[in-house]
Design goal:
Layout: E1 3-12, E2 15-24, E3 35-40, E4 52-54, H1 56-64, E5 68-69, H2 71-80, H3 98-127
Parallel strand pairs: 1-5
Antiparallel strand pairs: 1-2, 2-3, 3-4
Protein name: Small ribosomal subunit protein bS16
Keywords: Ribonucleoprotein, Ribosomal protein
Biased composition (Low complexity): 110-128
């Protein structure tokens, strides 16, 4: 049985509230879980101590039992100092899409054409 430490959503529409739970990975997101390990309220300020609460000892126990934290929970554990920080790299995130690249190429071509047109009369005047 593969275990996950993940978020289970609660709260009403547009008012999210999450429980940090240890659950079987085959169970649905908001479905059956084995143990509640803490809470996460994204509506509170980032510096608020009430935003993320978790039982660190139980989290460490479940990690010792082989439970894998999800990406978001892993970031919370890194902030709490339970888990070592991992290096993240997404080199494609900053690159523009196809249409944006086409617009940049068009703009560069127009600028080059305008520069050539402006340079041509200056050369003609210099030859005379």
């Amino acid at each position: 049985m593969s275990m996950k430490i993940r978020l289970a959503r609660g709260g009403s529409k547009k008012r999210p509230f999450y429980r940090i739970v240890a659950a079987d990975s085959r169970m649905p997101r908001d479905g059956r879980f084995i143990e509640k390990l803490g809470t996460y309220n994204p509506l509170l300020a980032k510096d608020s101590e009430e935003r993320v609460k978790m039982d660190v000892e139980r989290v460490q126990y479940w990690i010792g039992q082989g439970a894998q934290p999800t990406d978001r929970v892993a970031r919370m554990l890194e902030a709490a100092g339970v888990k070592d920080k991992t290096e993240r790299n997404n080199p494609k995130k900053g690159t523009p899409g196809k249409k944006a690249q086409e617009r940049v190429e068009e703009k560069a071509a127009k600028a080059a054409a305008a520069a050539e047109a402006a340079a041509a009369p200056a050369e003609d005047a210099a030859e005379e």
